[in-house]
Amino acid sequence: MSKTVKNSQVLTNDRPMNDPDTTHEDLGIEWRLTENHVSYPDALNFMEDRVGKIFTNESPQTVWLLEHPPLYTAGTSADKEDLIEPDRFPVYDAGRGGQYTYHGPGQRVAYVMLNLNLYNKDVRKFVYNLEEWIIQTLAKFNVKGERREGRVGIWIDRGNGREDKIAAIGVRVRKWITFHGISINLDPDLSHFEGIVPCGINQHGVTSLVDLGLCISMEDLDVAMKEAFYEVFKPEDLPA
């Protein structure tokens, strides 16, 4: 059974990402990095608080990079039959779109809290840009990530008809403020995905950058993600 999130502790180990080469402070976006694993209730509480404060102009738009301990999340379209091993890890109602997703160590989660009131209030374009952000990040490591019609996330063509998912997307929008976001598999335990049907798709597998033979660190991935973000979300699209 999915858990209800309430009365969670305040985060204490998050910090800004202070890379002067890619800060783009004029865009009004705060980048935060949490090095320790963040519980899902803590993450939801932070996003709920931050989204409200972005709407009232009390806090800046935010991109938050983190890792979770092993857990499953259920989106609003989740089918209970896709939760194969309900007792393997904690299961949480996410409140975002989509179905079941795994999060855990070795996977970079990026929660994206942007104010679409400042832009064109175009959710489809926002999701497209999230996809493109992942694709451009992977390209920096010479990995070709691809969209697939009717399948959420970003996929890798392994040849001989095999396609594996390397990144997931799930978003929610409230008063035109976005939250939740994306996850990219760097080096998670891929066997942990076996407890669910990821995103309701059982015809294909799951992969990671390390599974593809790359030897990169989470820091390498973070730098690539931040660079790629501003290549996709152009300054003219993100007014301060």
Could you explain how this protein is built, in words?
With 240 residues, this protein is of the alpha+beta class. Helix content is 20%, strand content 29%. It contains 3 helices and 12 strands, in the order ββαβββββαβββββα. Strands 1, 2, 3, 7, 8, 9, 10, 11 and 12 form a 9-stranded mixed beta sheet that branches. It has a 3-stranded mixed beta sheet with strand order 5-4-6, with no helix packed on it. The radius of gyration is 17 Å and the shape is globular. The termini are far apart.
Mind sketching the topology for me?
Elements: E1 14-16, E2 29-34, H1 40-55, E3 61-66, E4 71-74, E5 91-93, E6 100-103, E7 107-113, H2 123-139, E8 146-148, E9 151-159, E10 162-174, E11 177-185, E12 205-206, H3 218-232
